[in-house]
């Protein structure tokens, strides 16, 4: 009697980190929308800041005769990117670890890269929507002239992309620094100080030289400068400390912070709370 051989049952290959990242991007966006406080803060904060400062300094010009609302738009756009990436990701990740959410993801086999790609995808989508709303308000309410050339919009695209990715990896990196409360408070305080140092609220070239030197170490200064190169006329570059927009340096510094953040994440990321 001949034995009948049945083919061995094969398990389907597990989804790739990219596929998991795309799926988690959708999940992260749904969780974002279900949190009214986060939605309001992400979209309202830049607009409220623009309304306040444009109203207080109405009629005042900045270097080159640039209206204040137009000059300030660059800084508040950069700040919005920092808040939706660095601050939001760092705070959320620390809270998720503390609640045990990350531990459950580890149990079901979620790769760290897939988790990170989900966070990054959510940040990029949220950032694009936030900037679209902010630019619409600036153009319609305050008559801010938006760029018309393709080159400026391309600059806008790579500055936003590098800034958002840098903020996301750095937020992920600092989330392991302590409890969710400590991380949240620390990020908020650091973000406020960095905004003043980086020329968000003031003309950067008019700040004390030591402030400029400190700010140049961190990515926000270069993110704001990159945004100024998009929204301000070419003649305004003369008011920069280097007398130019320094696009090459901006790209290098932001990319360097992405690398630094990834290295720190690889060494410090953990799914569970430490004792």
TrEMBL record:
The GO terms describing molecular function are: ABC-type transporter activity
Segments forming domain ABC transmembrane type-2: 37-272
Membrane topology is: Multi-pass membrane protein
Entry annotated with the keyword Cell membrane: yes
Q: Where are the transmembrane segments?
A: 39-59, 71-94, 123-142, 154-175, 182-204, 251-269
Q: What is its main location?
A: membrane
Record GO biological process: response to antibiotic
Alphabetical list of PANTHER family matching this protein = ABC-TYPE MULTIDRUG TRANSPORT SYSTEM, PERMEASE COMPONENT, NODULATION PROTEIN J
Q: What is this protein called?
A: Transport permease protein
Instruction: Tell me the organism.
Output: Geodermatophilus telluris
